[in-house]
Design a protein that fits this description.
96 residues, alpha+beta, extended, 2 helices, three-stranded antiparallel beta sheet, 16% helix
């Protein structure tokens, strides 16, 4: 058993992507409308670079709108950005 065939940690959800239905004519379109890794909210450093460095700098908050990530605000630091990313969305949430 090689080192790359080990399963992931038991406390994380699987990263499987649902299979595309060959009978559905819009399957390729619907697949492109799904965000990567089903992440609907994310944060990015304003000045670029790695997300974990310089935790005191402002962060851009982005939300998936069904087609692309759109900027919805700015957080003062990494801690407040992660709080926003991890809170449940208001309303019905994004359609999957």
């Amino acid at each position: 058993m090689g080192k790359h065939s080990r399963p992931g940690p038991p406390n994380q959800p699987p990263r499987d992507v649902p299979r595309v239905d060959a009978a559905d004519p819009l399957a390729a379109y619907n697949e492109r409308r799904r965000p990567r890794m089903d992440v609907y909210r994310r944060q990015r450093p304003v000045y670029g670079g790695a997300g974990h460095l310089r935790p005191g700098e402002p962060r851009v908050l982005e939300e998936w709108d069904g087609f692309a990530y759109q900027m919805v605000g700015v957080a003062d630091d990494l801690a407040s950005a992660l709080t926003w990313v991890n809170e449940p969305p208001i309303g019905d949430g994004p359609a999957v």
